[in-house]
Amino acid sequence: MQHDSAHILAIRSLGWLVSNETLIDGFLAHTGASQEDLRAQAGDPDFLCGVLDYLMLNDQWVLDCAADLAVAPEDLAGARTVLGRGDQRHWT
């Protein structure tokens, strides 16, 4: 996966997360981020890695997000690896 594709997928994942009130509230509580941080840091690869890390805490979230975004679940992990400069996390 190319960096641009990973970045776009991570931003789309953030949009998916924001659209789910329960999950976004959990993300904000878990990370200490604020609503303002979501807007200000949406383009930051490190912040987007945090978004993908949070999604990968729960297999069902990964599957639901991937299905809604019409991508393979592995693509979310691949985006995380690219944006994290090779740091690999496993969602399973």
From TrEMBL:
<protein>
    <recommendedName>
        <fullName>DUF3572 domain-containing protein</fullName>
    </recommendedName>
</protein>
<dbReference type="InterPro" id="IPR021955">
    <property type="entry name" value="DUF3572"/>
</dbReference>
<dbReference type="Pfam" id="PF12096">
    <property type="entry name" value="DUF3572"/>
</dbReference>
